[in-house]
Amino acid sequence: MEGLTLSDAEQKYYSDLFSYCDIESTKKVAANGRVLELFRAAQLPNDVVLQIMELCGATRLGYFGRSQFYIALKLVAVAQSGFPLRVESINTVKDLPLPRFVASKNEQESRHAASYSSDSENQGSYSGVIPPPPGRGQVKKGSVSHDAVQPRTSADQQEPASPVVSPQQSPPTSPHTWRKHSRHPSGGNSERPLAGPGPFWSPFGEAQSGSSAGDAVWSGHSPPPPQETWVSFADTPPTSTLLTMHPASVQDQTTVRTVASATTANEIRRQSSSYDDPWKITDEQRQYYVNQFKTIQPDLNGFIPGSAAKEFFTKSKLPILELSHIWELSDFDKDGALTLDEFCAAFHLVVARKNGYDLPEKLPESLMPKLIDLEDSADVGDQPGEVGYSGSPAEAPPSKSPSMPSLNQTWPELNQSSEQWETFSERSSSSQTLTQFDSNIAPADPDTAIVHPVPIRMTPSKIHMQEMELKRTGSDHTNPTSPLLVKPSDLSEESKINSSVKFASGNTVDGYSSSDSFTSDPEQIGNNVTHQRSHSGTSPDNTAPPPPPPRPQPSHSRSSSLDMNRTFAVTTGQQQAGVVAHPPAVPPRPQPSQAPGPVVHRPVDADGLITHTSTSPQQIPEQPNFADFSQFEVFAASNVNEEQDDEAEKHPEVLPVEKASDPASSLRVAKTDSKIEEKTAASVPANVSKGTTPLAPPPKPVRRRLKSEDELRPEVDEHTQKTGVLAAVLASQPSIPRSVGKDKKAIQASIRRNKETNTVLARLNSELQQQLKDVLEERISLEVQLEQLRPFSHL
Amino acid sequence: MAVCVAVIAKENYPLYIRSIPTENELKFHYMVHTSLDVVDEKISAMGKALVDQRELYLGLLYPTEDYKVYGYVTNSKVKFVMVVDSSNTALRDNEIRSMFRKLHNSYTDVMCNPFYNPGDRIQSSRAFDSMVTSMMIQVC
């Protein structure tokens, strides 16, 4: 094909049309969609269109390249001018008017501020979708609804009714109009196969301003202009003439529209009039939307439920599919309800859609619901959005602005139900992506259930507990009665027993118990024990356990003496080290009771002596491990039955024991009270107490006795001889603490012992709990692994 | 990453099924259909307890030589089935879970649309389509 020469106006016009049809910007337009719509809008017979296509070479190519497109347009102009379609006629026909496309004409008009007929046209094109807008629409409806051939006269008739856009409009707007209009004959446009190579055609440089081309186009739409007028327009900027036309047409349009709009229901909506942002909602529009919102939801800050919105928008008679898409776009927060902003956006989109604008893939910025929900702020926000809106490839025709005032002027004349649509510029959606935005907000995933909880260590560590106890006992060390402290020192010197550690613990216990359990009744040692136990029971749970009872002498503790000793030795090394000095603080009462008994020089009553002696034999056998008192054991064994005699004999020997026995006796008493049946001499404890009070019972030996008591208990059976002694001694012990002083010491000793027991037990408990937790953790982890492996078990 | 994504209604008819049309789509449709049995089996196995305790993600339903089928069921007995290429070994379970999560969210959004009648085919939601496309495109 020979090269195509186009005038500047044509060049501009064609380029606009091409860019309009070139949706994908691939520089070639497929033979469907807009191109076909465009050609149909040319109001040419189908065969003519086919011929044009073949001529331009698109048939061969299968698509419209730019050159083919331009040629086709030229041919359309030729055909419209009445010239025979020939290749040669492209260039031969001089002063060919620009091809006239009815649809495009409407679009162009509608896009211009002055031309509001487009909405009517578009609405008419939707025929049936919307009742015809103002009368102009009705007029145009007839023309628009015809696809292929339309009498030009009708088009001409429409022209006066629908004045062309203002001359200042730049042709670039035409593509938008094309696009807007292409929607109409969206039916079977894609059937024309085009093939053939297109002639090379070098695009002409733009000669004239866009306005001229636009003018030429518009002039084509102007009232029945002969082709000459187009030509003349192409040559000379007919802006003046057009201008004269436009205002009148605008007025006509508005008036017509006003009349027609009065008849329309709420389904007529006004398009945005902003040139900068085709999606911007004007104030009037927004007010209208708000009023509509109020009809559904009086509270402007409230929501419109989905069902109500569905009913409302269904009235617009848009396809459900499109309404669904509009909803997707406008429901910003995906809550199934519409706020005021969302509702306005949806309304606006419906309006746009009804006027032929494609729905954007994403919500335009200007339509995005603002965080501030009020109208004023929204309007303010619209404008910044408008400024920022840069999506439209076509520049917003500035000529819209002059028409705007006219529109605004006419607005008050219109009913609230009547709205004037302004053409939308090409809606390139530069708005943020709604859906993507929402997807970024990852809602709480119901599936992310934590399978296995992480066990938390509730109880303080055993070491921690021990430290706590150490602190307590340390404090106790400082506070306990000095005599008790003294005792350990004395005992430490004297004691050569391996269980000095236990003595220490016992000492602390004694010190503690003596300080804390002064008023405790020896008979209520059990209660003390329970009390102490309660301490130990709660200690595992408290990070700051109550002051642990002073470590009971290992010998007298209830638990197996061996374990206790071991535990104490292992766990309370530090403590016991410190306590070592103390264990001998409480010598067993019976011994002192016994000791002073036989001691003559002691200022003790004979009864006391007797009691002491009575107890001493009991105590003595309890100290078989004590090197110091082994002889006494023998004595005790031998003197069990002969208290009196033993007393006399034991006196010198028991003396040293006496001191130790005094504190131990209290403990022994405590122990014996709880463990050994009481026997005989009630006075014995009294005497013992008396005997022991003046004494400074060496704690260590006492402790040893106590310990030996525990150790001996299992050994009692072994020693038949000693069992009786032990029994006697132990039996006598319960009676000993009857005396006041002895009572106190015995109680204290028992309390200490029990507290020590409690602490040890508490430690054991915490250790076991910790082990339990570890095991539970392991179990849980194993279960998790099992679950993970489970899916594969089905396979 | 998915080769085929399907949304099955409670009555076991497909609401949405889409696959990469590189292969015979019918094969994928058949795989999804057969996987429904496995889904029901898993639901019934866990369904003794309260529905709330049942986990929505069902995991690997069954593997074939070329593909693995994963399942997910909502509390309203709407099932999501996803067919994944077995050669995609890098796909971890967590990723499958996240994909199902996105599916579920998109499905919820579709449900929120008052213009969507529950039980209809999901053909109107471009957001849903785009989300599924994003999931499937990653394979290539």
Word description of this protein:
Chain A: This is RalBP1-associated Eps domain-containing protein 1 isoform X2. The complex is a heterodimer of chains A (795) and B (140). In chain A, 59% of the residues lie in helices and 1% in strands. In chain A, strands 1-2 form a two-stranded antiparallel ribbon. In chain A, strands 3-4 form a two-stranded antiparallel sheet. By secondary structure, chain A is mainly alpha-helical. Among the domains of chain A are: 85 residues, Recoverin, domain 1; 79 residues, EF-hand (Recoverin, domain 1, Orthogonal Bundle), CATH 1.10.238.10. Chain B has a single domain, classed as Beta-Lactamase, CATH 3.30.450. Chain B has a 5-stranded antiparallel β-sheet with strand order 2-1-5-4-3, sandwiched between helices. In chain B, helix 2 runs antiparallel to helix 3. Chain B is globular and about 40 Å long. The interface between A and B is medium-sized, with 31 and 28 residues.
User: What is the C-alpha radius of gyration of chain A, as a whole number of Å?
Assistant: 55 Å
Largest interface: A-B, 31 and 28 residues
CATH class term of chain B: Alpha Beta
- Helical content class of chain B: 25-40%
CATH architectural arrangement of the domain at 8-92 in chain A = Orthogonal Bundle
Shape of chain B: globular
**Major beta-sheet overview of chain A:** 2 strands, antiparallel
How many β-strand stretches of chain B?
5
Counting H and I runs of at least 4 residues, what is the number of helices of chain A?
Answer: 35
Instruction: Note the main sheet of chain B.
Output: 5 strands, antiparallel
The CATH architecture of chain B is 2-Layer Sandwich
- Report strand order across the widest sheet of chain B: 2-1-5-4-3
- Quick one: CATH superfamily of the domain at 8-92 in chain A? EF-hand
What's the pLDDT, averaged over the residues of chain A?
56
Uncertain segments of chain B are none
Question: What's the average pLDDT of chain B?
Answer: 83
Distance between the termini of chain A: 69 Å
**Total domains of chain B, how many?**
1
Family (chain B): Belongs to the TRAPP small subunits family. Sedlin subfamily.
Keywords (chain B): Cytoplasm, Endoplasmic reticulum, ER-Golgi transport, Golgi apparatus, Transport
Protein name (chain B): Trafficking protein particle complex subunit 2-like protein
Subcellular location (chain B): Cytoplasm, Perinuclear region; Endoplasmic reticulum; Golgi apparatus
